[in-house]
Recover the amino acids of this structure.
């Protein structure tokens, strides 16, 4: 196996392991977002749209700088989406096809996508979730493939449970694998299927023609120090041209479009005369093949398209508007994770990677879909009916690289009010049916629900103290009324701070977001008490 393939395989395995470990928030300080921090397209969009420097993306700038010296090594050696495309091309038999001029008219499209993305971000709208290679890979593997594997494991356990019971294999008899489920899976699968299917036109069609990160790398790698060279031993057999997965070798095999070359060194291994090498070189000859460039009309069209999409997003009814006295900016229509910055900044920074959803242990974080507007389709929202936001968990804030969710310690996170619970009396078992129900009161960790007596009812009914409710959704999740709960959480009164202390802000607003103390342990019975007659401990 070539060094490029070894590095690519090791990189993909590391990506998969980190993505898997993202679901274990108790493992401290693991850089589960390490690959996402290397995506220059995500960095460009998030920082331009958010009007701020995001320190986590400093590594992406380092990768771009290294590309100027080493060529597009990231695409051929590191990128998990590139590894996926290489495997798909092998399976579909498209490896080793395509020449330099093939699909030449499509190559500038990646620069148009990059320009449109940058123009939209300059206007404050980020649509990078549609084209960021790392966001696409994380959503596909983290939210779809991993969930499918978990579902298969659950089905397998259910299938062999009768056998395990008969053989008294207790671990399998009582095994209950958790199966996270996410919305918009069809959309994620469709996007990835289209990217893979495009490989039928040419190997790595996405990398050649569509990837905005690839466009940035191509611009940086116009004349790298580590680049392809061809000696006089070349016999013009054309094998390197046919084998190149990026079509980076010109009709004259001695000339290479270095901005398109991903340094995979496939040409080295297929050359029958060992004429191809990849030395470090400061010389200016031979001249590289001329890359395809954007014309003036193409550039204007791409910029106009980006501006048009941004304006379309801003006139969407779901685009945040208005101001909140507590947060200083519109809080939006959806329940956002605790620590989410104000909605406008949140949508500008969020790149829809899904890493926070993968890390959430209760599966409450789901893609928002169209409820968040065009720019927030894959942004996270809380779905309390699926799961609640556990007060003792801050996993989502620890894995977000863009600062869309602030990295809060637990002491601050418990004061980050998500919303407020409201009782739908016409559905409530106690209010409507005059039957006792204590569930919401029992599960509330903030002691925000009290049971009181009211006229005309013989049972105590629940009331919500809005100053004590954090909006965690435990009451909503556990409410026994089906299908829709009789107590729901709305983003009313949510705290969305771009900076500053949630504890101090909550205190200033008169909120009492204190967790109730745990119930005291039940003492063991005294000797001889509560034991069956004749039983001796």
């Amino acid at each position: 196996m070539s060094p490029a393939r070894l590095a690519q395989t090791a990189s993909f395995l590391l990506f998969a392991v980190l993505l898997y470990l993202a679901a274990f928030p108790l493992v401290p300080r693991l850089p589960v977002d390490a690959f996402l921090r290397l995506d220059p397209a995500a960095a460009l969009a998030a920082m331009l749209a958010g009007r701020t420097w995001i320190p986590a993306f400093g590594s992406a700038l380092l990768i771009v700088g290294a590309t100027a010296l080493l060529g597009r090594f990231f695409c051929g050696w590191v990128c998990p989406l590139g590894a996926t495309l290489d495997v798909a091309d092998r399976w579909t038999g498209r490896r080793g096809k395509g020449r330099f001029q093939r699909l030449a008219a499509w190559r500038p499209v990646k620069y148009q996508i990059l320009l449109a993305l940058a123009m939209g971000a300059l206007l404050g709208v980020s649509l990078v979730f549609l084209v960021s290679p790392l966001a696409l890979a994380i959503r596909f593997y983290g939210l779809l493939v991993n969930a499918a594997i978990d579902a298969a494991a659950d089905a397998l356990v259910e299938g062999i449970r009768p056998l395990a019971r008969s053989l008294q294999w207790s671990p399998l008899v009582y095994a209950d694998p958790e199966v996270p489920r996410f919305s918009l899976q069809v959309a994620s699968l469709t996007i990835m299927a289209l990217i893979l299917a495009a490989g039928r036109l040419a190997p790595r069609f996405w990398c050649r023609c569509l990837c905005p990160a690839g466009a940035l790398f191509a611009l940086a790698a116009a004349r790298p120090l580590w680049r392809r060279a061809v000696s006089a031993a070349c016999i013009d057999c054309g094998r390197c041209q046919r084998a190149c997965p990026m079509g980076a070798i010109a009709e004259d095999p001695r000339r290479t479009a270095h901005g398109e070359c991903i340094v995979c060194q496939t040409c080295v291994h297929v050359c029958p005369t060992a004429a191809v090498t990849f030395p470090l070189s400061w010389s200016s000859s031979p001249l590289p093949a001329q890359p395809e460039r954007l014309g003036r009309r193409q550039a204007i069209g791409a910029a106009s398209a980006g501006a048009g999409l941004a304006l379309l997003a801003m006139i969407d009814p779901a685009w945040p508007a208005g101001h909140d006295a507590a947060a200083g900016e519109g809080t939006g229509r959806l329940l956002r994770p605790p620590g989410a910055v104000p909605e406008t900044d949140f949508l500008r920074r969020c790149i829809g990677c899904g890493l926070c959803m993968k890390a959430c242990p209760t599966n409450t974080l789901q893609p928002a879909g169209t409820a968040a507007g065009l720019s927030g389709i894959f942004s996270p929202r809380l779905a309390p009916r699926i799961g609640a936001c556990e007060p003792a968990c801050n996993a989502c804030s620890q894995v977000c690289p863009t600062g869309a969710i602030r990295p809060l310690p637990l002491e601050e996170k418990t004061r980050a009010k998500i919303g407020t619970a409201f009782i739908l009396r016409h559905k409530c078992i106690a209010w409507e049916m005059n039957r006792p129900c204590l569930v919401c009161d029992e599960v509330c960790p903030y002691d925000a629900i009290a049971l009181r007596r009211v006229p005309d009812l013989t049972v105590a009914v629940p009331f919500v103290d809005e100053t004590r409710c954090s909006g965690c959704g435990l009451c909503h999740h556990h409410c026994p009324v089906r299908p829709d709960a009789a107590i729901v959480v709305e983003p009313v009164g949510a705290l969305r701070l771009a900076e500053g202390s949630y504890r101090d802000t909550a205190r200033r607003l008169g909120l009492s977001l204190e967790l109730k103390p745990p119930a005291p342990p039940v003492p063991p019975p005294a000797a001889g008490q509560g034991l069956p007659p004749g039983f001796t401990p």
